[in-house]
Specification:
about 475 residues, mainly alpha, DNA Cyclobutane Dipyrimidine Photolyase, subunit A, domain 3, five-stranded parallel β-sheet, about 50% helix, globular
Length: about 475
Amino acid sequence: MSDRPLILWVRRDLRLGDQPMLAAAVASGRALLPVFVLDPETEALGAAPKWRLGLAIAQFATALSGIGLRLTLRRGPALAVLEQLAAETGATGVWWSRLYDPNSVARDTLVKAALTAQGVEARSFAGHLLHEPWTVETGQGGFYRVFSPYWRAVRDRAVATPAAAPVRATAPAAWPASDRLEAWGLGAAMMRGAAIVARYQTVGETAARARLAAFLERPVADYARARDLPGVEGTSRLAENLTYGEIGIREVWHAAMRRRSDGMDGAETFLRELVWREYAYHLMHHTPQITHANWKPDWDDFPWRGDNADAERWRRGMTGEPFVDAAMREMYVTGTMHNRARMIAASYLTKHLLTHWKLGLDWFADCLTDWDPASNAMGWQWVAGSGPDASPYFRVFNPAGQAEKFDPKGHYRRRFLAEGALEPEAEALSYFKAVPKSWALDPKAPYPSPLIDLAEGRARALLAYGARKA
């Protein structure tokens, strides 16, 4: 084999197992040069996901060292960095795992065309999805606009067997210069919040596998019910790890399928949720405008409010609606938010406050360590009414009613709300240590009054929505 290396451009595939690109590269016997590029697309990430990415990169670099490789870090436009690295090392090829958001697709298309024109092998592999978005079609050959038939189409479809993690790889004769991860300052925008949120992160492939195993051992049995209860540990919490590719989706799928075969209650519902994530990518591939514009064009003339004082109180978890505020504070303390709470918080902003879903989408993109471009976009538009949802436009979640149903004993609200409590819980107090000092929030202050009467807010939303339909 030639001594000229093969560059592995790693992105959201920060693991050794269930990694089609890495498995093929190791099997080739070629010298391998893994590189992570901090390009403008990655620099544009929000504060929390960019900080969490740094943790994932550091952990992956350690994992690579265990099989005899180093992770080279370079900063700059992806094409320029890859061209420079190829020139330095004499690399004959660049391989990567596919990403599916519009910005990544545009970047990767440019990189592949340019490298190919220069005689450098440019090859992409299946990424972090069970099925490539273009491989799932309706009977008429189009894409699915409703989830249920999409689920039926892929529920029993074959999924590739996860590749085992390599135990050894061929290193190049010499390693190129690398940036220091600390010099990138990926966590700078987190400021004092980083120390709080760090307590809730489960970083790396080994930890992700342990998280999956623990979930499938017991909690999955009651998943169909418990996943809607934010006050209990009823979900897998794997979104964080799937976001950075710290665990492969095929591995998760096959493990859950084994539990379904064992007759474990809840496994089917969990599999369905994995496919909901797939469906978000299916839509993003076929309708990329979902990330920034109304999925349903007839919503373009809806009189959403732009940024406003009410939206700022929503961002700060100070709306006066305990379920909404607990959700927003959970995100600031832990870097994530329970899925039921996400729906309630999003509905309150877009319907009770009639504020554009894009403001909420952008705030989540800045604050969530498990931020996912497809799921975030589809989720916000689904709730707002402008997205892929077969339900009528007049569905408006009532935060008080939802709290009574899904947090009947108030565990979730007490966990994150300090005001008015004789002995606030530690996580409720952590919120005030994580937020910017400029917000001047005090846990001993009175709890804020509601921004709007819930019945009045619902009526206002229905009036506005009804006028749009007229």
